[in-house]
Amino acid sequence: MKKNLLLFLLLTFSLFSFGQTFIWESFDSGQMPPAGWSLSSLPAQWSANNSINAGGTAPEAQFTYVQQNTSTRLVSPMCDLTGLTSVKVSFKHKYDWYANPAPKVGVATRSHNGAWTSVWEKTPTGNIGPEQMEVVIANGDVGQSEFQICFYLDGNMYNLDYWYLDNVLLYNPLNLDAGIISLVATPSYFAEPVQVKGSIMNVGLTPVTTAEIAYQADNGPVLTTTVSGFSLATRGTYNFTCDQLLNGSIGPHALKVWLNKVNGVSDNSQANDTLRKTSSKVCHVVPKKPLYEEFTSSTCSPCASFNSGFVPWCDTNADSITLVKYQMNWPSPGDPYYTAEGGVRRAFYGVNAVPDLCVNGGNTATSMSAVAQAYIQAKQQIGMIKIAGTHSLTGNVMTINATILPFSDFSNVGIYIVVMEKITHNNHMSNGETSFEHVMMKMVPDAEGTIANLVDRVPFTINETVDLSETHIEEYTDLIVGIFVQDQVSKQVFQSAYSTENGLFGNEARLNNIILDGSSLPGFDPDTFNYNVTLTGGTTVVPGIAGIPFESAETVIVIPSLDLPGTTTIDVFAENLTAHTLYSLNFEWPVGQNEEKKDNIRVYPNPSKGNIYIYGASHASVSVYNSIGKLVSSMADFTGSTVNFSSLPKGVYVMVIETINHSVVQKKIVII
């Protein structure tokens, strides 16, 4: 059977241009072409797939067949190799052959945009790999200031299925040299303190047996961990976990991780020792509902075998998962209910065979043990988004309203709405199945979804009307609507839910009570939203606050003050996720009691949505620095009371106030 896939492959190389390691790429970023890289011919055939066919770790690079006789190159940025006479390129690859004559694959070099010279090439007559390649390059391009490599294919592109690449390294090994190559294992989002994790690689000649790893968040204290008990040969890798947990206030944190020592000393090149990452603390968590997406067909016998166990499992767990099934157009003649929108989702994931299963955006084996394990793992993840959806049907026209409430900032996400029929029968073909569950009939507005940048605690609403008369729907009384939010690069699904037919959600967004250190807040009134709370003498800990809603379906989010005096806020969202109320508790010192801070300067509210009050500063100099120490705002001879920082991105900042008496006060502030 000719290739059963339309692969969507994204090849991503992250360039290190430093020291003796010139290029390293483990295909983590998902950008195509990567920054500084270029493609000559067939750009649509290059993408990234969440697989490990080349022998590395997911994701990996992939080239997909096309009916053309031509060539294509993935071209690196320029590297300065002045003074060198040789370098090495290593990579993992697998060639998935289809027929002869198959296209050649290879690696070539050039300098100063000149002609390409091949340094490694194969003409496959069958499948190759997975295998690790190491190629010494010692031609005339080496030693030039504008050196480039490329990975190329040349020939009849229909006669291969795919070419996979991973772990590309261009280097000139020093005696002792290691580098941090990945921080992917460190969560990008967290609610509780988390471990800082990553990988180091030995790119030198001397085996690495110990490493001292340091990390720093937001220019805070430097924390170190020593790892040992291994021996890394050249290109060997080690996955590390730092001893100290990462924590912080709500919002993004700039994380810097580096190698302090290798084998007890500084190695021969520090330029590849450091990586940076942003990791955000979310303001609230909810249970995560796993999304199961199955690619299947009524002409596929293995699909029937898998579904004999998968369908009962889905029925048992119907209230705990969101299920979507895309009927595919192969094996020939394909499922009658195949649609081009299902083909778009197939390309998005790079599906190459049926049955195929993705759970929360990650490829999962089509076995019941893998299905159950994926469910356990998904339920252990934090839910960082809440979804409220309703739909109604008038004739063949459906109206859908979906509101997304994020608990952190999320960039470049897709919001997908899927209209499905719960049970179909008329698409049965040759595999023995006579009924099919949750068959995708229409994606709204289409299979590309709605692309958006979500802002912490700012509801995002989609209103759509769609005519379903041109779909394969058998019974209009048997429809269900799924909604999910997915990262466009990593493919991670942040949250999923079913819409409620003819749903009517509550709009109550007030509190019935506020609990302050275990007792009811004196003078609380549900319709009073701002309170001044006088602290008792000697208070050093921010009081504990809890909000008690009128209705259990309300969402209550407490943002504690960072210091004293300061302001704790309580966001309350109604069941419909759009109605919203904000309560503020401003903690103050008793009258006549001096704050144990220099010059009794107070900064509040903190966190703030933009307006910050500065009390006690007269003719002061005020400077504000972001999390990486860059000056973002300054005021000389400040005597006012209010500063508007709403133009600053959300995040953690340090405000430095120098008084007329030359004393200096530092305040950490959070813009939300």
Structural Rg: 29 Å
Distance between the termini: 55 Å
Number of strands: 46
- Overall SS class: mainly beta
Q: DSSP helix count?
A: 3
Largest sheet, if any?
A: 6 strands, antiparallel
The parts where pLDDT drops under 50 for at least 5 residues are 1-19, 594-599
CATH topology of the largest domain: Immunoglobulin-like
Average per-residue pLDDT, rounded, comes to: 90
Strand content: over 45%
Structure description:
With 672 residues, the protein is mainly beta. It folds into 5 domains: 21-171, Galactose-binding domain-like (Jelly Rolls), CATH 2.60.120; 178-281, Immunoglobulins (Immunoglobulin-like, Sandwich); 293-501, Immunoglobulin-like; 505-596, Sandwich (Immunoglobulin-like); 604-672, Sandwich (Immunoglobulin-like), CATH 2.60.40. The protein contains 3 helices and 46 strands. Strands 1, 3, 4, 6, 9 and 11 form a 6-stranded antiparallel β-sheet that branches. Strand 37 (555-559) and strand 38 (566-573) form a beta hairpin. The chain is flat and about 90 Å long.
